[in-house]
From TrEMBL, chain A:
PANTHER family: CARBOHYDRATE TRANSPORT ATP-BINDING PROTEIN MG119-RELATED, GUANOSINE IMPORT ATP-BINDING PROTEIN NUPO. It is found in: Cell membrane. It is a peripheral membrane protein. SMART domains: AAA. The keyword ATP-binding applies. Residues 7-238, 254-499 form the ABC transporter domain. PROSITE patterns: ABC_TRANSPORTER_1, ABC_TRANSPORTER_2. GO terms for cellular component: plasma membrane. It comes from Sulfitobacter sediminilitoris. This is ATP-binding cassette domain-containing protein. It holds the Pfam family ABC_tran. One of its GO terms (molecular function) is ATP hydrolysis activity. Keywords: ATP-binding, Cell membrane, Membrane, Nucleotide-binding, Repeat, Sugar transport, Translocase, Transport. It comes from the Bacteria.
TrEMBL record, chain B:
The lineage of its organism: Bacteria, Pseudomonadati, Pseudomonadota, Alphaproteobacteria, Rhodobacterales. GO terms for molecular function: transmembrane transporter activity. This is ABC transporter permease. It holds the Pfam family BPD_transp_2. The chain crosses the membrane at residues 6-28, 40-58, 64-84, 96-115, 135-161, 193-211, 217-236, 243-260, 266-287. GO terms for cellular component: plasma membrane. Keywords: Cell membrane, Membrane, Transmembrane, Transmembrane helix. It comes from Sulfitobacter sediminilitoris. It is a multi-pass membrane protein. It is found in: Cell membrane.
Amino acid sequence: MTETPLLDLKGLTKAYPGVIANDDVSLSIQPGEVHALLGENGAGKSTLVKMIYGLVKPDAGSMQMFGVPFAPAEPRAARAAGVGMVFQHFSLFDALTVAENIALGMENAPKLRDLSQQIRHVSDTYGLPLSPDRVVGDLSAGERQRVEIIRCLLQEPKLLIMDEPTSVLTPQEVEILFKTLRKLSAEGTAILYISHKLEEIRALCDSATILRLGKVVGECTPAETSARDMAEMMVGKLLQTPTRAGKTPGDVVLELKGLSAQSPSAFGMPLRDINVEVRAGEIIGIGGVAGNGQDELLAALSGEMLTSPGMIVFKERDVSLLGPTPRRAMGILSAPEERLGHAAAPDMSLTENAMLTAAARERLEKGGLLDWGAAQRFAEKIIETFDVRTPGPGNAARSLSGGNLQKFVIGREVLQRPDLLVVNQPTWGVDASAAAAIRQALLDLAENGTALVVISQDLDELMEISDRFAALNEGRLSAPRPAQGLTVEEIGLMMGGAHGMEVAHV
Amino acid sequence: MDLSAINPILFVAGFLVAATPLIFAAIGELVVEKSGTLNLGVEGMMITGAICGFATAVETGSPMLGFAAAAVGGAVLSLLFVFLTQVALANQVASGLALTLFGLGLSALLGQSYVGIKPPRLPDINFGPLADIPVVGPILFTHDIILYLGIALVAATWAVLKFTRAGLILRAVGESHDAAHALGYKVVRIRTLAIMFGGACAGLGGAYISLIRVPQWTEGMTAGVGWIALALVVFASWKPWRLLLGAYLFGGITQLQLNLQGAGVAIPVEYLAMSPYLITIIVLVILSRDKSAAPACLGRTFHASS
C-alpha cells in the first residue's frame, strides 16, 4: 500500500512485572479500514489499545499517525488527535444523565442544552435513538453502548476503537451497530474492532491481526479465512468441540410456578411470572440481554433472595422459603456471574473458598468444627480436575486470572455432585480452550442426571449445550423451545427484538 | 417558668449564629463525599481550625487573619488524611477516626497557653439603614461577614455541583472512579482537592465557634458538631439546600433549649441538651427517604491499575 496509513504501530512492547503484555507488536490501519484485533483473554489486546488511547505508555516501539510521530501522554491527548474509544466496561456513570455522561468524555464540552441538540442530531444521522435527559442507570445495555458511541462520534474521530462491542447486544442490535459502523467506515473513519466472535469479524472487518501471548501470530483477511482457522491461530492448537450423547430427560427436578419477585437492588429488574420445568439430565439455556433479570433469577434459585411460598418446587418439595445453606444441603448448587466478590471471596485462599460452599455437601464441617485438611484436599481435587493454573490451594482467589478462577468456581460446584446446578455466565471472560472444558464439564454433569439451568449472554454457547432454550426479557421468561434448529431471528424475537430500535432508519 | 422572657428576634438571630459552624463543616464534608471519599475526621479538623484561628487572632489582633489561619490549619491537617487514604490506600473509616483523635490531641497541646484569654472581636457588617428595619433588620442584618460567607458557600456549592463542568467532574469521580480514570480524569488529584476544601471549611467552622459563638478557648469545645455535620450530610441526601435547612433546624433547637433553660422550664437540663441532636436526626431521617442519592463510590479505595 502506497497510501500513508492512518495509524502505524512499530515494535510496541509493554511489560508488567512477571508478564510481557505486548512483545514487538506492529500493525497499520488505513483510513476507512475496519481492522479486527483478535486474541484470547490475556493475549494483550487491551494493553495495545490502551497504549493507542494514552492510558498506558509503551516501554519500547513507536506509533505514527498520518506519518507523524504520535505518543499520547493521556487520553485527552489521544482524543484531541482523533482517537475515540468505546469501552467494554467501566466508563459510564449510572447516576448521571446521558448528556452529562457525554459531556464528561469531551474536551470543550458545550453547554448542556446545546449538547443535547448535538446528541439528537448525531443519533438521528447514525440511526442510534437516544434521549439525552435519561439517567444512564435506567438504560438497557444496547442503549448504554449507544451513549458511548455517540460520545465518540461527537468528537469526529478519525479512528474509533471498539472493545468487545457486541457482547451485550441482541442480534438485531448487532445488525444496527454494524450498519452504523459501515456508514462510518464509508465516510473514512477507521475502526479498530476487538472481539473474539469470529463470525462477526468475518461479516464486518476488512483485515485482522491476531495476537497470542502478546505477540502478533498472524494476519488475515477475515472474509477469506474460515472461523475455525482464525480460532486455531488465536489458541495455537486444535479446538475440541464439546460433545454429548443424546439422552431422554428424567423426572422433573425443578418447577417454577409463577415465580415473581422484586429485585433487591435499585437498578435491578423484578422477576415476573416465570413458569418452567427442568428435568433430570436436561440443560435449559436461558439467554437474554444482561440486566433483564438474570441476576435476580439466580438469586431466587440459589436462595439468596426468598420468594413467596409455592413458587419454587424442588423434587416435589417447596423450597421457596429456604435459604442458600439448606438448599445446598438438598443438592441445589449455584455459581453466580461475578467471580470476585460473589462466587468467591477475593482475599481468601482457594481452600477457604472451597470450604465456603462445600462445607455441607462434602462433610468439611463436623459438629461445628471445620476440617481444613479435607477442605484442602477438596480444593486440590478441583485444581487438578479442572486444570486450574495456580501454585496451590493456599493462594488467594484474587491472585488467579479470570479464566482460572472461573474454572475453580464452576469446578467447585460440579464436583459436589449437584442435583440441580444453576450457573450464570459460566464462561464469561474465559479463553476458548478453558471455555470448551467448562462446557464439557456441564454436559458431563447432565449426562449423569443433573438438571442444569445455564444463564448466559453467549448465544453460541447456549446453542451448543442446551436441550431447550428460553430468553429473559424485562424479567419475563419466554416459553422454552428445543434448542436444536432455532434460528437467529427466532432467538432475537424471544429476546424481545431490538430495544427501542423501531425508529431507527440508517 | 416564664416564656415571655424569650425574645423572638434575639432568638432567631441567635440560631443563625448557632448554625453557622455546622454549615461550614457540613458543606465541606458534602463536597468531600461527593468526590467519593468518606472523611470521618471532621471533628478533628474543626477543633484544629478552632485553635489555629484562636491563636492567630490573639497573636495578630486580627480576627480575619484568624479565620484564614483556621482554614489553612484544617486543610493542612486534612493532608494527613490525603496521605493515608489516597497515597497509602489505607482504610478511610479508620483513617478518619484517627484524624479526629489526632486533631483533638493536637489542639489541646497547641491551646495550653490560650485558656481563659478573650479573642479580638470580629465586628458586624454595617448595613446602614437596613439594620433599622423592624424585626427583619435585627434578624438578618446584624451579623459578621463569616456568617454570610457560610450561606454564600452553600449557594456556591449548589451552583458549582449543578451547573459547572468542575462540579460534573467531581460528581463523576464520586460515582465511578474507574470510569473517570478510564476517561483520563485524575481521580487522586481531584479527591485531594476536595478533601482539602473539606478541611478548610471544617477549620472555618471550628474557628467560628472559638472566635464568635463562644469567644474563648477550651479543650474539646467543638463538642460533637463535627459528628453532627457528618450525619447531616447523609440525612440531607447530599443536597446543599437541604443541608442548610437541617443546620438551621439544629441551630434553632439548640438556641431554643438554651432559652428554655434560661426561662426555667421544668424539664431536666440533660433532656434539653440532647434535644437538638435527637430532633435534627429524626426530622432528617424522615426527609431522606429517597435513598438513592449516595455517591456510588463513597468510601471505596481507588487504585489505578492499568
